[in-house]
Write a structure and sequence with these properties.
The structure holds two protein chains of two kinds. Chain A is an alpha/beta fold. Chain A is built from five helices and six strands; from the N terminus they run E-H-E-E-H-E-H-E-H-E-H. Classes of the chains: A alpha/beta, B alpha/beta.
Chain lengths: ~130, ~220
């Protein structure tokens, strides 16, 4: 599988490791080159430095057709902008983005972008914990 | 009308004041506490502290009954979310956004933002046109379609049109004198109106007539 990961922060850098270990073909796009340091497993990983909201850079990242794009910069609004720019370039591509703001999740799911929300995942996990459940 | 403005930038503050003095109801939202506190001294409950790209804040501001939402923060991505949220969640009839990076205009249009204001583009446009036009005619804004412009023309000393009535100028079709600003008053002119030195004239002009209006107004 070809995976493109946008943002190499706490989440993105881990995702790169996970998918590259699994044997997937991975490209990671990040504006701040120094953040690539966090990536532990990097065999065969392609690194692209650039502004991920820039359409030209996004196109460059998608040069090899991707099966899935994971949008994981630290800013919800930036993720929303990037995800929609990807959809404009190629509506058929599977895009999953991370959003912290629960209130935004439903809005963008309706627009055909899949969302992972750490806030709601944490709440769900907490409610299942012994002493709370 | 009820207008919500997100982002207490200079543009946001000025727009708020202009709209208030025009009798409109306005809420100005910004998340900078110091800024909001300072503004509240003069604008009172018009200013609201909060993140204008957050649904609960917009709900509190009454986004469901807003006629217009204007996103004027300096961050394009934030502005995009403000417009999209208000359109999709609160069915706002009209959204306007400031766009800093001209490359982002396409996405704003594709998600249905009604109007985008791109200061970079306007500035470039003004500078380009300024150089072409010389001193007399100042282009203010290109109207939709691009071949008609709103321009300001000042009447310089010794201009041949001083003392002339509008109707005697023989203006060609494609030049309309919209208003004259004189001694701190705006005059809506008629055919009988006589030009004076230092008048600031606003006109709608077809591009092909810019040279013509330049010639007519130029000073001695």
């Amino acid at each position: 599988m070809r995976v493109v990961i946008i943002g190499s922060g706490r989440l993105g850098s881990r995702l790169v490791s996970v998918f590259s270990k699994r044997g997937d073909s991975v490209l990671v796009l990040e504006q701040n080159e120094s953040k690539f340091m966090y990536i532990e497993d990097r065999e065969g990983v392609e690194f692209l430095v650039g502004d991920s909201t820039d359409e030209t850079i996004i196109r460059q990242a998608l040069k090899k057709p991707a099966d899935v794009v994971l949008v994981a910069t630290g800013n919800d609004y930036t993720n929303i902008m990037i995800a929609q720019k990807i959809k404009i370039i190629d509506k058929t591509i599977k895009v999953i983005m991370r959003l912290f703001d629960i209130n935004l999740v439903a809005v963008y799911m309706e627009l055909g972008i899949e969302v992972v929300c750490p806030t709601s995942l944490t709440i769900d996990a907490l409610l299942k914990m012994p002493g709370i459940a | 009308m009820y207008i919500i403005i997100v982002g207490a930038s200079k543009a946001g503050i000025n727009l708020t004041k202009t709209l208030l003095s025009g009798g409109h109801e306005v809420t100005l939202i910004d998340q900078d506490k110091a800024k909001v506190t300072a503004l509240a001294e003069t604008l009172n409950e018009t200013v609201l502290l909060g993140n204008g790209a957050s649904a609960p804040v917009l709900k509190f501001a009454g986004a469901n009954r807003a006629d217009v939402v204007a996103a004027l923060t300096g961050d394009d991505a934030t502005n995009l979310v403000v417009c999209q949220l208000t359109k999709l969640m609160f069915m706002t009839p009209r959204t306007i956004s400031r766009v800093s990076d001209p490359a982002n205009e396409e996405i704003f249009q594709s998600i249905g933002v009604d109007a985008t204001i791109n200061s970079t583009r306007i500035l470039n446009y003004l500078i380009e046109e300024q150089v072409q036009a010389g001193d007399v005619v100042v282009p203010l804004f290109p109207l939709k379609g691009g071949d008609v412009e709103l321009v300001q023309v000042d009447v310089p000393k010794g201009s041949a049109i001083v003392g002339n009535k509008i109707k005697d100028l023989g203006l060609p079709e494609g030049i309309i004198i919209v208003s004259i600003y004189r001694e701190e008053k705006t005059i809506i002119p008629k055919g009988e109106t006589v030009f004076q030195q230092n008048d600031e004239v606003i006109a709608i002009v077809k591009k092909e007539h810019i040279d013509k209006i330049q010639q007519m107004f130029k000073g001695a």
